[in-house]
Structure formats: C-alpha cells, structure tokens
Amino acid sequence: MAKVLVVGGAGYIGSHVAKLLQKKGHQVSVFDDLSTGFRELAKYGDFHLGSILDPQEVRAVIKQVAPDAVLHFAARAAVGESVENPSLYYEVNVAGSYQLFSALRELAPKAKIIFSSTCAVYGAVEGRLNETLPLNPVNPYGRTKKMIEEMLADFSHAYDTRYVSLRYFNASGADAEGEIGEMHNPETHLIPRLLENALDPSFEMKIFGDKHATPDGSCIRDYIHVEDLADAHLRAMEYLLNGGKSDVFNLGTAKGSSVFEVLKLVESTSERKLKYQIVGARAGDPPALIADSSKIERVLGWKPKNDLKSIVHSAWSWIQKRPR
Ligand code: UDP
Fold first, then answer.
1. Which residue from 76, 106, 170, 276 has the fewest beta carbons nearer than 10 Å?
2. What is the pLDDT of residues 73-90, one digit of tens each?
3. Which of 44, 141, 163, 223 is catalytic?
4. Is 60 exposed, middle or buried (0-12, 13-18, 19+ CB in 10 A)?
5. 141 is catalytic
6. Tens digits of per-residue pLDDT, 1-31?
7. 3 CB near ligand 1 (under 6 Å)
8. Domains along the chain?
C-alpha cells in the first residue's frame, strides 16, 4: 500500500485515477483548489483544499501526507484558451508545477512523480507519434507541458527525482459504475459537446473545419478511455515504486477517429440526429494526432481495454445523469 497524493484529484482524469488507486488499497489524498475541478468528483480518499500556486499550502499538504507517490494532474488544459490567454497557462502549469516539484524536493525527495503530459507536446506531425520524436508544440498549452517535462528531466538528472511523464492523447469516457465522469465548465471537448447537443438540440455544436489534410477533412484524434488511462497511472506508479527509472510514455490507443466518425457514433448511440455547423479550423489544432503506444505496452504491460464505442456509451450514460 502506498500513500498517494493526487494533485488536481477533483478534476476529470484525477478523480478516475483516485478511484482506481483507492480500489487497489492505496491511501489516497486529493489536493485541489477547485478552480476547474469539482468537489463532487473528489469522492475518494481525504480531500485537502489548496493551490499549487501557494507554496505554503503545497508544503502543508506534503508534510501532512508524506507521500510515497505524487500524481500531478493540476493544470489548465484547453488548447483554445491557451492561445487566447497564455499567461494563465504559464502561471498555473509551469509556475505551479515548479512550486510542487521544489516543495517535494525539499520535503519528500523520495516521492515518485507521475506527470500528466500531453500529445500536444509533439505539435503537427504526420503519422503515428512515438516518444523519440522532437517536441515542437504548436500552441501555448503544449509548450507549457513540454517545459514541465524538461523541468522534470533536469530535476531527475540533478536531484535523482524519479518520475514518469504520460503523454495523454484524447481522454474520454466515464466510470463504468457511473459514479464520476467528465465535467468541465465551460466544456470544450468534442465528445461531451456532441452528447450535450444530443441531449439538448438548442446547444450549439460547431465542427472546427472540414478542410484539414485528412480523408474526410475533419481532424483525427486518438480517443482513450479514462479507465484505461487510470490503469496506466497505476502501472506507472508501481513501476517507479519498484525501482523503475524515470521515463516518458505515450498514452493512446494507436487508433485514430475523425470528428465526423465520432459524430456518427454519438448519433447512433443516442439515437438522435445532431444539428451542427461547420466553421473554420480552431487556432493551434493539428490535423491528426495518433499514438504509437508500443513503448508503454512493452515496458508497463499496458493495453487499452475499451474502444471508441464503449467510450461514447459510458459518456452518454454519465451525461444523462450527472450533476448540473
Ligand atoms: N472539436 C470540434 N468542435 C468542438 C470541440 C472540438 O470540432 O466543439 C474538434 C477539435 O477541433 C479537435 C477534436 O474535435 O479536432 C478534439 O478536440 P478536443 O477539444 O476534444 O481535444 P483536443 O484534441 O483539442 O485536446
């Protein structure tokens, strides 16, 4: 059993990971400032209200929990918003991560770190993306995550900080038991927005571009079920606690789906016809992002168990009953 601090555990992904860790017998503590997270998603383990931007609050929770492992989800994570308001991203993501890592270095230097990175660090690259590619992010969100990965690599080199960075592709879907699921305010992600439109036809749905360099002209993404994502965090944590070296892994399914393919699946799952408008491409949106996931399969023995159909099904049942 490990003492695990889940930083940003009241968010969409952090809450699913906290649930799985608790189920597996780990002692979970969630630290979140609720700036984008929801108290009702932080149901697993102890809850500590506080911000990574406040060095005193960060230090207090680390002292109290004395974690063996820290899972760091706390971040702003919307590409469009990062283009409009980059300052927020450099502050919360880069300065916040720095506060967290430097407090850990001082107060819990042996704690293993699992960091939520993103495929946005690669930028606009064709073909399946593997971890050895150069990182050329095309939006501020991706740039902040790249900087944090570099900070961790430098800390690891100089101070022997042990970490795993997981480069998420498109996290989606909801808890199979229906206790938690995706909640963002405002919601910017494709699948919950399409489902919202299926529930409420007055909800305006825009498709960002049908002239991308892809077979149907809409963007292609690699959608990964949040429960498969949670399983990868558990494996990464166990790997580090068992002496594994610092490393970086893609976390995607290696299968791409276009926006129009997702839209059709939402229509068939919800048995409703969607009304949408095709608008111009969103700034900073690469046409296609698909993982080469062979490294995480090889090193951590991870494989996705869910496909896009089960993602959309679980998200559809969640959205119909989630708190509003
Ligand atoms: N998208 C869209 N309309 C929306 C939201 C998203 O067409 O209302 C597209 C977006 O351009 C991207 C894909 O859906 O190609 C996935 O976007 P999302 O914001 O879910 O994730 P991202 O890939 O930006 O992390």
1. 106
2. 999 999 889 999 999 999
3. 141
4. middle
5. yes
6. 999 999 999 999 999 999 999 999 999 999 9
7. no
8. 3-171+224-251 (3.40.50.720), 173-222+254-319 (3.90.25.10)
